[in-house]
UniProtKB/TrEMBL annotation:
It is a multi-pass membrane protein. The lineage of its organism: Bacteria, Bacillati, Actinomycetota, Actinomycetes, Micrococcales. GO terms for molecular function: kinase activity. It comes from Leucobacter exalbidus. It holds the Pfam family AmiS_UreI. This is Signal transduction histidine kinase.
Amino acid sequence: MSSVGLLYVGAVLFINGLMLIDVVPAKAAAAMNLFVGGMQVIFPTIIIAQAGGDQATILGASGLYLFGFTYLYVAWNTLTEAPGEGLGWFSLFVSCCAVVYGVLQFTMFADPVFGVIWFAWAVLWFLFFLLLGLGKAQLGRLTGWFTLWLGIFSGAIPALLMLSGGYVTGPTEGWIAAVLALVLLALSWALGKPRAPGSDAPTPAGARVAGA
């Protein structure tokens, strides 16, 4: 994923995380989803059209559509007040693809950090599937917090490091990224626990309206 695209993936994940924990109203998040979703569909199309059949370039661009379609789907659900089940099941498809892209980062691109990032995204989109596709409302705040943290730590920070020439990857950095991802998931679980012991948390308004 390009550093510029990754920066705005971080931005939209941050906004959508705030939406899922009821800080930002769903309709207030729609514009960012439209902007970034459109960018993540138009840019890879241009890259693939200019790739000259280079499979590595095409492979690298192909994953951007998973994000673009997700954000456009969120915007559609928000603006039309459509139910979230379709987005939920699409998120399961994205989660499975993210696992494959993560493996390829280790095997083809020798980039353990981005391998871990793709695996973290796979977990996040699987949470979207559970929340929206299967109606696990009690996961709403957990999913929101994890979305927010990944917007920062899997989007904005790596993108800024890449743009400034400070991005470094390798086995040590990969292990650090893996530990950080687990810490963020645990923190999200702690922050997202149901507020009333023994009862499910209410579904956040953002999840009811727009999904992820």
